Amino acid sequence: xxxxxxxxxxxxxxxxxxxxxxxxxxxxxxxxxxxxxxxxxxxxxxxxxxxxxxxxxxxxxxxxxxxxxxxxxxxxxxxxxxxxxxxxxxxxxxxxxxxxxxxxxxxxxxxxxxxxxxxxxxxxxxxxxxxxxxxxxxxxxxxxxxxxxxxxxxxxxxxxxxxxxxxxxxxxxxxxxxxxxxxxxxxxxxxxxxxxxxxxxxxxxxxxxxxxxxxxxxxxxxxxxxxxxxxxxxxxxxxxxxxxxxxxxxxxxxxxxxxxx
Length: 261
Description:
The chain is of the alpha+beta class and 261 residues long.
């Protein structure tokens, strides 16, 4: 649980000197660890530790009706819970704007990159596979978007595909691997004064003027999300996109190693 103990001026003074509270460089991630299979009853699951931020994702696959405008495509339903144990700022109740944004940012990247090929999830007339992606923040210390995207993609890539036989979903026995498409990751940057840092921790997020998350696969930027009240210049955004393509090679490598690819 992240509890702030420093001031904005302290964070800004450090950044002006070219360093950060934990000693990282401006464009460095905290240590990342991914564990798959953390929820035994889910089709796929993964926990991501990014520094002290911890996000759990469970993937469940069921059968439902297709959307009217895409009668042969499967469905993706993404939700997020900011658990009270993760931060003193989280509480029990309906989804907050922060939880809704978190789920939507993760969902948007996965959809845009076709991590889940929904066009291959048709079963029969009026029946398609549905993939439920449930995100749980177990500990907050900044940068939920990148940790959440990695946990969701790792859970999807490690999932097993149930069978549909005799009007029933079969989740036991010999099951094949869930078919996936592209691998996506995201890089989140915080602008604090005149400095821009990758993977902001909780103290840095509390001091930031603006935030931007860039999600990409190997070839394309698939989604972007701007947050907080400040702004990034066009030149800054172009530079961050270039940095994201370079850094995402490392993130995809971590993901693939975690799921055994």
